[in-house]
Design goal:
alpha/beta, 5-stranded mixed beta sheet, 14 strands, 13% strand
């Protein structure tokens, strides 16, 4: 059995070096015992027979996602965290793409642990409350705070405070590890029990601020406790007021309502009238050219600001089938045509295999502008919000009135929500026949981009077969409706 004793400070770097050496020597995970601390300043503990192998050896790489995961998990309080990480490291040498398998238990357990650490780090940055303990006239003021984290996050979170409060000296004391920032440098000392901290006059100012920003009309106690758990309240000066503020919330909200103006201000009324007029603008029904001009000038929601152009539907004006997707992608936004990117190409292939002729259908999207977030030179798809879907439904309704299809194929949650008002349970509803608001038969299926995102080849093939069956049923229904 190899015993590896890691330091309390620099834990991640020490684990990384030790794990690399053990992996290069092909030491099985079950033969390594990981510990933190316990030595006399030595990085690793053990007998000479258990000497740690050198990290030097045949180079091997792991996905950057694994290193980011490890740099979170090592700060978790679970004593098995190092063993779990090392076991996954060995598995990655045999299966490099294992990190993409969301069904792998080893990966999923570590992801849950990493999420808990990230959440705890966020809570620390939000709920640490400093008290001044130095002389105000000193060249650098001095502050101290007491915090009780759920995990061992002091070391990885200290740089946030060093950057945020670099103009003062401070100490954050915890039961596990203490961080001190003095003259621009961070150092760590062992954890301690909670010391008596002096009162701070600025806490009264903070309590006054908190009382004034507390909005009783928007109080949601469960949501508040989820974001600010009770375990942190005892070390936060404003938390002592929360029971009182919650108890009086209804009375204060009633007083606010009584004090509200009885009539709408003239300026607000003019804005409301202008918005109503915009939304009630006569629809250019029946004229395709007029429809296209109006669509390109659409500013009903903010999506038009970043998109290259609005992407209208295309197809025969008397098409018996309307295919509704979710929104344009990067390729569609540049080309100005629907379903020309990877998802559209996949749809064309599967539709051809199912006997569904796209050229005889009217193909469009529930949302007409591309919503994305920029990542360098790439534009990554972002799902539209409910209000964006609601605003864009106006254009989809116009297309439905112009085309008057006998059957609608709704592909994806956004299309289903736009046409029926709900996307819930789409995988259970897929393949089923429903009705749009005007009574038009509507068949439900997934969007082809869903198939492209599946990490497992086996799952992708099975889902594609289901998608092909949905398109085959669409073709059969279309034949029945046309013959009727």
């Amino acid at each position: 059995m190899r015993q590896v004793c890691l330091p309390e400070v620099g834990t991640f770097e020490a684990w990384r070096a030790a794990a690399r050496g053990l992996a290069n020597s092909q030491v099985p995970a079950q033969e390594v015992l990981w510990q933190v601390g316990g030595g006399d300043g030595d990085l690793f503990a053990g007998t000479e027979d258990d000497a740690l192998p050198s990290a030097a050896g045949a180079p091997f790489t792991v996905p950057s996602r694994f290193m980011a995961l490890a740099n979170c998990v090592v700060w978790h309080r679970d004593p098995e965290r190092f063993a779990r990480l090392y076991a996954l490291l060995l598995a990655l040498r045999e299966t490099p793409r294992l990190m993409a398998d969301r069904g792998d238990a080893r990966v999923s357990v570590l992801e849950v642990m990493a999420k808990a650490v990230r959440r705890d780090k966020h809570k620390m940055t939000a709920f640490v409350r400093f008290r001044e303990i130095g002389e105000r006239e000193a060249p650098r003021r001095r502050f101290v705070a007491w915090f009780e984290p759920s995990h061992l996050i002091v070391e990885p979170t200290a740089p946030f405070f060093a950057k945020r409060f670099g103009d003062m000296n401070w100490s954050i004391l915890t039961p596990d590890l203490c961080a001190h920032f003095e003259d621009g440098a961070v150092r760590f000392t062992p954890g301690i029990e909670k010391p008596p901290l002096p009162e701070d006059a600025t806490e009264d100012l903070w309590r006054t601020y908190f009382r004034n920003i507390f909005n009783p009309a928007r109080l949601k106690v469960k949501a508040m406790q989820a974001e600010m758990p009770r375990k942190y309240w005892k070390n936060m000066p404003e938390a002592a007021m929360i029971p009182e503020l919650v108890a009086g919330a209804r009375q204060r909200a009633g007083a606010m309502l009584e004090a509200a103006p009885a009539s709408v201000p003239a300026r607000a009324a003019r804005i409301g009238d202008r918005l109503s007029a915009t939304r009630a603008k006569p629809a250019p029904v029946g004229d395709r050219a007029e429809f296209l001009v109006a669509l390109q000038g659409c500013q009903r929601c903010p999506l038009w600001r970043d998109a290259t152009q609005a992407v209208p539907g295309e197809g025969p004006p008397d098409a018996p089938l309307m295919i509704v997707g979710e929104q344009p992608g990067d390729h569609e936004d540049l080309a100005g045509r629907p379903f020309v990117g990877p998802a559209g190409q996949l749809f064309d292939r599967v539709a051809g295999e199912a006997g569904l002729d796209r050229s005889k259908a009217y193909v469009t999207n529930a949302v007409k502008h591309f919503k994305f977030v920029a990542r360098g030179k790439r534009r990554l798809h972002q799902a539209p919000e409910r209000d964006e879907i609601d605003h864009c439904r106006w254009w989809l309704d116009l297309e439905r009135r112009m085309i008057r299809p006998k059957l609608i194929l709704a592909m994806g949650g956004t299309a289903l929500e736009s046409l029926t008002g709900s996307r819930k349970g789409i995988l259970k509803r897929r393949g089923g026949l429903e009705q749009a608001g005007d009574g038009t038969p509507l068949l439900v299926t997934v969007h082809p981009s869903y198939l492209l995102r599946l990490p497992s080849e086996e799952r992708r093939q099975s889902e594609t077969e289901l998608f092909r069956a949905d398109l085959r049923r669409t073709a059969d229904l279309l034949s029945e409706l046309s013959a009727a």
